[in-house]
Amino acid sequence: MDTGHTDDEHPAHHPHKRRGLIARFRANFLTGLVVIAPVGLTFWLIWKVTGWIDSWVLPFIPQRYQPSELVRDLFCSAPQPGQSPDDLPFWCVNGALDLRGIGVVIFLIFTVLVGWIAKGILGRSLIAWGESMVDRMPVVRSIYNGVKQVTETVFNQTESKFDKACMIEYPRPGIWAIGFVSTSAKGEILMRLPEDEVMTVFLPTTPNPTSGFLLYVPKRDVTFLDMSVEDAAKLVISAGLVYPAPKGAKGGPTGPSGGAGR
Question: Fewest CB atoms within 10 Å of the CB: 112, 131, 144, 170?
Answer without folding.
Answer: 112
